Amino acid sequence: MQLKVIHTLPEMNALSDEWNNLLIHSASHVPFLRHEYLSIWWQTLGGGEWPHGELHTVTARQEDGQLVGIAPLFFTDNRDGEPALMFLGSIEISDYLDVIAPTEQLPTFLDELLDHLDSPLAPAWRVLDLYNLLDSSPTLAALKEAAARKGWSYTEEPLQHCPYIPLPGDWEVYLAGVDKKQRHEIRRKMRRIEENGQPVRWYIVDDEAKLDGEVDEFFRLMEQDPKKQRFLTPIMREQMRAMARAFYKAGWLQLAFVEVGGEKMAVYFNFDYMNQVWVYNSGLDFKYYEYSPGWVLLAYILRWANEQKRECLDFMRGEEDYKYRFGALDRRVVRAIVRR
């Protein structure tokens, strides 16, 4: 393989089409590895999560010029204050991260990558500190073996739970598969809001001219939670607005609201990508809390996802109880740590 290091955003942008085409065939195909997402992330360093960083993304090509691997890395001081190479997207706002390579190319690519990182061409890193790999990622075993061949240490740490719901493609079949008490609760809450005496509407934003205004409404509902209000710094708002615009243009933003009497009660900021719904963030108007608007909007989205034959609804990181009450299965993301 022929390796090359990307040090600048223009170099990264020149690869956008090849990058996304490779991702389609990658062992880990998740929205947070799309070029659109990571290029936006880099411009704000994750909405200000990192005060500084140096781009050190490594690409690999075969002799015929075919792109077969991308290690989307940057160099910074990690949370422990150590000089580290980390995934672009680390840590807080990107639920799933990984290298980008087909399964059959992973072992060779990781061997070549570690050889590069052991050379004078690499920055003076002390730890390869990789967050948010799904516990099912083949990268974990391949990286462990590649590190062992170098005589380097490899450890894994479990991180957050990432519940998900496999969808049968039929709303009634889905409901029949959840706990009987929960099934009754879903129906009761949907019926209660629909019989409140005012018009009820839920919708997915489908007008680009209204997108910025709808994103403002998303922020308004989101910041009613004090914790989320602290999260929504000016630079984080810039990051999320840029994400919304890019994902809408790409065709996989699902910004969904529920209204009663023309008043927005709840919102979900999701991705409709790869025939799955990825639940990214949410907000609600607490003056309507008695109607459980978040639950009701989630139920509408689940019904829509079944009708549209989506294969899965992925709650991503977070082990909130309601996710399991809606029938979610469990898995985790992990942190992989390599030291020379």
List the helices and strands and how they pair.
Layout: E1 2-6, H1 9-13, H2 16-24, H3 35-48, E2 54-55, E3 57-61, E4 67-71, E5 73-77, E6 83-87, H4 106-117, E7 127-134, H5 138-150, E8 153-161, E9 164-166, H6 171-176, H7 180-194, E10 200-204, H8 211-222, H9 226-231, H10 234-250, E11 253-260, E12 263-273, E13 276-284, H11 293-307, E14 312-314, H12 321-325, E15 332-339
Parallel strand pairs: 6-7, 13-14
Antiparallel strand pairs: 1-3, 2-5, 3-4, 5-6, 7-15, 8-15, 9-14, 10-11, 11-12, 12-13
Helix pairs in contact: 3-10, 4-5, 7-11, 8-10
Which characteristics define this entry?
single chain, alpha+beta, Aminopeptidase, 340 residues, six-stranded mixed beta sheet
Approximate strand percentage: 25-35%
Unreliable stretches covering 5 or more consecutive residues? none
Please report the first level of CATH classification, the CATH class of the largest domain: Alpha Beta
Query: What's the total helix number?
Result: 12
How many β-strand stretches? Answer: 15
Can you tell me the number of structural domains? 2
CATH topology assignment of the largest domain? Aminopeptidase
Q: For the largest sheet, list the strands in their spatial order.
A: 2-5-6-7-15-8
Along the chain, the helix and strand elements come as: EHHHEEEEEHEHEEHHEHHHEEEHEHE
* Percent helix: 25-40%
Q: How large, in whole angstroms, is the Cα Rg?
A: 21 Å
Category by helix and strand content: alpha+beta
What is the residue-averaged pLDDT?
Answer: 97
Distance between the termini: 23 Å
Q: Could you say which overall geometry the principal axes of the C-alpha atoms support? A: elongated
The CATH architecture of the largest domain is: 3-Layer(aba) Sandwich
CATH-defined superfamily of the largest domain: Gcn5-related N-acetyltransferase (GNAT)
Report on the biggest sheet: 6 strands, mixed
